[in-house]
Amino acid sequence: MTTTPAPRIAIIGAGPGGLTCARILQEHGIAATVYDADASRAARDQGGTLDMHPGSGQHALRTAGLLDDFLAEARPEGQQMRLVGRDGRILFDAAPPAADATEGNPEIDRGQLRGLLLDSLKPGTVRWGHKLTRVDPLKDGTHRLHFADATIAAADADLVIGADGAWSQVRRLLSDATPVYTGVTFVEAGLSDADHRHPRLAELTGDGTMMALDDNQGFVAQRNSGGHIRIYIGMRTDENWHRQAGLDLTDTAAVRDALLDEFTGWSPDLLGFITGTDTGYTNRPLYALPVPHTWPHTPGLTLLGDAAHLMSPFSGMGANLAMLDGADLARALIDHPTVDQAITAYEKVLLPRSAEAAAGAAEGINGAFAPDSAAQTLAHMTQHH
């Protein structure tokens, strides 16, 4: 009697979606290897806070057997949503649901979520320092992975899952689509120990997220754990606005002065989010894939998360959708007798769902950065809260 060998599953990218997929597969006795370009789990900052939705992020965590661990670290109070006018007046303030963390969309720092997922995996599952440079199809239908470090041997896989983000290498084998600039750039800044060092800005932010949006500009301030507030200074502007201004992004004083010029006429309190930063500035132009983004079914390859459906953060669904993708793909691999049948079933659900979410994200960013964005955002918040 012969037995079919277990498929060799390679997940490219140790983000929330790829790690969720690996965790669920391991829980059902299916091995997967995660390859990530970072040198270690602590190689770079993981970004701001995330709200986990019951039907997507929380569902994925429950499927992975990690919901209780998540709830132990989540911040229900982080769901507070506040809209502020450019004059600094609070226009709308939605308190979070009752303290029960299972209600609504409790918040968690990206780094905490990633740590929770990483700690749930068997040692050696994630191969750090493995930057994928190309994927070669082989004659037997498998694929060979090549890495930037010449000392790392190539690896063969029966299934390659592209969880490698906006500029995915795996996507190139499936689709000619590339991310397109949305017209909006965020300049990221931050306040540490905000309640003590920046009490007025901490008070204005509240316990969750504060937005001040008007006339194609705005501020988004998010509470993170440990007294940190992460700030996104947003502008509808040219993708290379800093070059056109002759600006060196490493010159903190010059960036501050340029941003103050951009936001002339805004409240001094809100301008404090520019001048008060103690983390410097990071330029983050926002990109999105075309809507809808689809690809022909290709044996041995598939995508999840931003690699499949990169969209603006105004969907509110990015990490949630990536984790739901990871959970659905893992379940398909568990439930179907062949890898190809599993991919077919997964993509049948993934593609229409992601197209709907991406269309909503495009509508969201266009409303948030428009001439009348203050009125649009207030109407949206009033309707949905």
TrEMBL record:
Domain FAD-binding per the UniProt entry, residue ranges: 9-348
Record's subcellular location: Cytoplasm
Function description: An FAD-requiring monooxygenase active on some tetracycline antibiotic derivatives, which leads to their inactivation. Hydroxylates carbon 11a of tetracycline and some analogs.
Domain notes: Consists of an N-terminal FAD-binding domain with a Rossman fold and a C-terminal substrate-binding domain.
Family matches, as SUPFAM superfamilies: FAD/NAD(P)-binding domain
Family: Belongs to the aromatic-ring hydroxylase family. TetX subfamily.
Assigned keywords, A-Z: Cytoplasm, FAD, Flavoprotein, Monooxygenase, NADP, Nucleotide-binding, Oxidoreductase
GO molecular function, one term: monooxygenase activity
Predominant cellular place of this UniProt entry's protein: cytoplasm
Catalytic reaction list: a tetracycline + NADPH + O2 + H(+) = an 11a-hydroxytetracycline + NADP(+) + H2O
Gene3D superfamilies the record matches: FAD/NAD(P)-binding domain
Entry-linked InterPro entries: FAD-bd, FAD/NAD-bd_sf, TetX_monooxygenase
Protein name, entry field: Flavin-dependent monooxygenase
Quaternary assembly: Monomer.
